[in-house]
Amino acid sequence: MSELVSTRIRTVASKLGLPHLAEALNQYAQRADEAKLGYLDFLDLVLAEELAVRDDRRFRQGLRTSKLPHHKTLDDYDFSFQPDLDPRKVKDLATLSFVDAKANAALLGPPGVGKTHIAVALAVAACRAGYSVYFTSLDDMVKNLKAAEAAGRLTSKLGTYLRPGVLVVDEVGYEILERGEANLVFQVISKRYEKGSIILTSNKTFSEWGQVFGDEVLATAILDRLLHHCDVISINGPSYRLKNRLKAIERDTNVA
């Protein structure tokens, strides 16, 4: 490939928004020569590589804007520590069929059993698949919505929680809500109903949500919309955090 042609291709690639092609052109040409690729095979190679680079760039940008606390995957989750949890149920969720259907997923159980880990792993998978994702604790969401409501910007702020294809709401039940706060949560749930997926974690059973939201009727209305299309997984095993803490104590004791 002549230098003149290479320069022209790089210029056109940059104008088309294909910076990787401009950078890797010589590498592509060398691979084509070594494999004796035909014109169509060479074009297929270039387009496949460019698509992979663009998808990876989009994925990384999606992770940056998702506010996820970490980027752990299901490969990092120790299913052997939770023998009562069927891995197949979690891996079924990881196919994201519920996200495709704009349905929901709920992970219930006591603190420390890995609910947030699984929720984040599902969110990472959704992000990689091209869905927009946003993570928040319930407490943070309520505080932000209350502040926006007081400032007359509630409609605008609601968009933060309505726009993403997947909204992750963590730690439902750790704080008791006032009725006005519960109504703000209801607005998010009802406006997302059958329009976008919610993944939530809670340390409370659904029968306890009346106490959490301070109003049985409002809690029922929230659950009615949330659970209409929802996969529910209960994790009732031991705490990972306690396990790690006990190991650290045991190690320190042995060293002493």
From TrEMBL:
Key words, A-Z: ATP-binding, Nucleotide-binding
Heme among keywords: no
Residues passing through the membrane, by range: none
Entry keyword ATP-binding: yes
Annotated AAA+ ATPase domain residues: 101-234
Origin superkingdom: Bacteria
Family stated for the protein in its record: Belongs to the IS21/IS1162 putative ATP-binding protein family.
Name of the protein: ATPase AAA
